[in-house]
Structure formats: C-alpha cells, structure tokens
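Reopening this ticket.

The earlier resolution said the output was attached, but the attachment link was broken on my side. Pasting everything inline this time so it's all in one place.
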Amino acid sequence: MTTLPALVGITTVTGLATGLGALPVFFRSRVTHRVYDAALGLAAGLMVAASVFGLIIPGTEQGALWQVMAGVFLGGFGLLAGNRLIPHVHAEFKQWRGHGGADGGEPSIDDRVRRALLIGGAITLHNAPEGLAIGVAFASGLEEVALLLAVVIGLQNVPDGFAFAVPMADTGMSNARVLWYTLLSGVVPQVVASVFGFSLVSVAAGLFPISSGFAAGAMLAVVFRELIPSSHGHGHADAATGAFLVGFVLLVVVDAVVVV
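Inline output:
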C-alpha cells in the first residue's frame, strides 16, 4: 500500500509537469503567430479529451450519470458566471514582444489581468479533482491505476501550464514569476486534493462524480470561451484546428495505451 509521503511525492512530480508548459514564455520573441495559435489549439484538444476521458467517464464509473452531468453544468455555467464578473477580452498576440508598442486596439493591462485570472482560475480549479482521483485510487488499493492516472495527468499538465502561462506573461509579469505561479497552479491543488482523497476516501469517493463533472465543465467552457477564440484570430485557424485534432487524438491514445 502506498504511504502518504509517497503519494505527496508522486502528485508533486505530476504537478511540477505544469511548469514545463510555462517554458515557452522564456522564448516568446521567437514564437510566431502560427506556432502560438497551434499551441493553443493543441492545448484545447488535450483539455477536451482530458475532460471526457479523464474526468467525465471515470466519474460515471464511480457514480450516477446525473451527478456527473450536474457537475458539468455547475462547472461550465460557473465559469461563465465568473466571466461576467471578470469581463472577457480577446487579447492580441503582438508577436510576443512584451506588453507595449502594439498598434491600436491593444487590450489594456486591466483587460489582460482579467483574462489571466479567468483562465488561470479554471486551470487551477480542474487540477484539484485530478489530484482527488489519484488519492482515491491509491487509498482504494488501485496502485497501478493510480500510477497510470498520474502519468496521464502529468502529460496533460504540460499544455495546461502553457494555457496558464500565456495570459500571465501577456500582463507583463516577469518570466520567473510566471513560472512560479504556473508551478503553484499545478502542485498545490493536486497535492492538497490527493491528500484529502487519500485520508477521507469514503467521503471523497462519494464526491468524485460531481467534482469530476464540475472540473470537466469548467475546462470545456474555458476551451470554447478562451482558447479557441484566441487561436482563431490571426489567420491560422487551420493550423490551430489541426493541432486541436492532434492534441485530442494524442491524449486518447496515451490514455488507452497507459490503461492497457
């Protein structure tokens, strides 16, 4: 049986993978519109696949379908409600050359901060049920399943980190702080939730269906409200769509191979 310190170590490593997605902000002057849009499309495809195969389906296997669907609506409409409180603005890319000097129409720093908070909050939010799932699996004696789940979640955390870091970097925040906050967005919720799930498995197992649905709903909402519009505004919609399909298929294949 896996011990609590081992669980913390595993989920910490899984969460740290989020930081890999933030590394492109260190090279933003070399990233083109096409690469940027394709990367967002890839992240969107991975997130949609993770919502379905990593959260919704496992949720229905552990609880009733209505619980998961209720969670999806709560998460999705909760994200939209938050969007009304933090107004959405489609930020322009500006060739990743800092936060000044763009042509007319550049979003204000306040707009960028609102967008960063919205996307960052959704990414951080969905990391908690994933950690919960790992903790519940370990506490239930399903160690092989838990390890495979940790691998899949770790892979998914990389594009999650990218989706988190891009709007943060667009506010003019330093690279070091972007990397630090991105790491925290993955490590903290996944470790805390995994410990909760491990310690209170009976309660956590009952909450997993609705919490997984909630996370999936929030992820799907942020994909269609933020990532897809942002990846289709620079004339490279085909590249973004192709990358979306690659991301979706990639995570489905990885999930199938790892589970087998």
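Reporter confirms the inline version is readable. Residues 82 and 118 are 7 Å apart (CA to CA). Residues 87-106 have pLDDT under 50 and may be disordered.
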